[in-house]
Amino acid sequence: MFFEISKFLDFIIIAPLTWMTILFIVAFVTKKKKLRRGCFIAAIAIFLIFTDMPLADWAGRQATKSVNAPHMNMKKPYKAALVMGGFAEMDNRNGMMKYSEFTDRLWEAVRLWRGGHVQRIVISGDCSSNIDSEGYSTAGLFLNYMESLGVPRSVFILEQQALNTRQNATYCKQIVDTMHIRNSDCLLITSAIHMPRTLRCFAKVGMPLDYYPVGQFDSPAHYCHLDFYPKWEAAIKWERIINEWIGRIIYRIVGYN
Predict the structure, then answer these.
(1) How far is CA 254 from CA 3, 54, 201, 257, in A?
(2) Is the confidence at residue 98, as pLDDT, over 80?
(3) Can you tell me the distance from the alpha carbon of 135 to that of 28, in angstroms, rounded to the nearest whole number?
(4) pTM, rounded to two decimals
(5) 186 and 87 together in one domain
(6) What confidence tier does 152 reach under pLDDT thresholds 50, 70, 90?
(7) 185 and 86, same structural domain?
(8) Same structural domain, 172 and 132
(9) CATH at 192
(10) How far separated are the first and last CA of the chain, in Å rounded?
(11) pLDDT tens digits, 209-253
(12) In-domain check, residue 153
């Protein structure tokens, strides 16, 4: 139920495109001139603000400034990299991976494994390996795909139940405890914007962790006028940022972190 509610709120609350659509609909159907004018102005303002890439990047940096750099020991190999899911799903027709904007979580984990910094990769709650309501999973396709890229199946440990960050922490702890791996031998990998909430969820279940953020909001060396042209990619970044703001508030209210 919590998962379904969160997805509904994602569509209604955090999407600037949804806000603009609602405002335009109200503007077209209302007979009140002041309301119509106000809706048009508000829709245009939302468009200008939430398609501004420098503003979106600035907001992202403010939301991630405490975790925008890795906090890890580069001189030791971690026994497990805990990679938060949401980065891919498998195509049943050809066995290939459908990438999302969060796939850098996986590839950075693989890069760290190739460099000898991690020994195993635990993937928690990803569509590529989760078990669906009918008991089906594409985990085999995922492992085959990674093996074709030179990463042995034995490198991966798949946590196949988590649907949210709280469950990521809970189920990963069960895996780590079963394998008798210490917290200090685990490295958390997720997007920088998702990292603060994830760290608090893991700390809540007794797992303070070193971490490796990906997808940071970097500040450019300089700006030009083209940077301020409207871009829909900025609206997508804003959705991620707003989603995390709301997620942090809700998780604090319900006691998840």
Answers:
(1) 14, 33, 12, 8
(2) yes
(3) 46
(4) 0.89
(5) yes
(6) very high
(7) yes
(8) yes
(9) 3.40.50.620
(10) 19
(11) 999 999 999 877 778 878 888 998 999 899 999 989 988 998 999
(12) yes
Task: Report DSSP letters for 176-201, one per residue.
Answer: HHHTT--GGGEEEEEEGGGHHHHHHH
User: How many domains does the chain divide into?
Assistant: 2
Question: Hey, what are 39's tokens?
Answer: 């809706």
- The type of residue at 130 is N
Same-domain status, 19 and 96: no
The verdict on 137 and 61 lying in the same domain is no
Helix (H, G, I), strand (E, B) or coil at 187: strand
103 and 125 fall within a common domain: yes
Give helix 165-178 / helix 195-204 axis angle, nearest 10°. 50
pLDDT digit string, tens, across residues 107-143: 999 999 999 999 999 999 999 999 988 899 999 999 9
Q: Is residue 19 domain-resident?
A: yes
**Which structure tokens are listed for 167?**
């469950």
Residue 247 is part of which domain span? 2-65+231-254
d(CA 93, CA 63): 39
Task: Report how far residue 57's alpha carbon sits from residue 221's, in angstroms, rounded to the nearest whole number.
Answer: 13
Tell whether 36 and 113 lie within a shared domain. no
Residue 15 pLDDT class (50, 70, 90 cuts): confident
- Three-state SS annotation for 66-113: CCCCCECCCCCCEEEEEEECCCEEECCCCCCEEECCCCHHHHHHHHHH
User: 153: which 2 tokens?
Assistant: 């199946």
Q: What is the pLDDT of residue 227?
A: 81
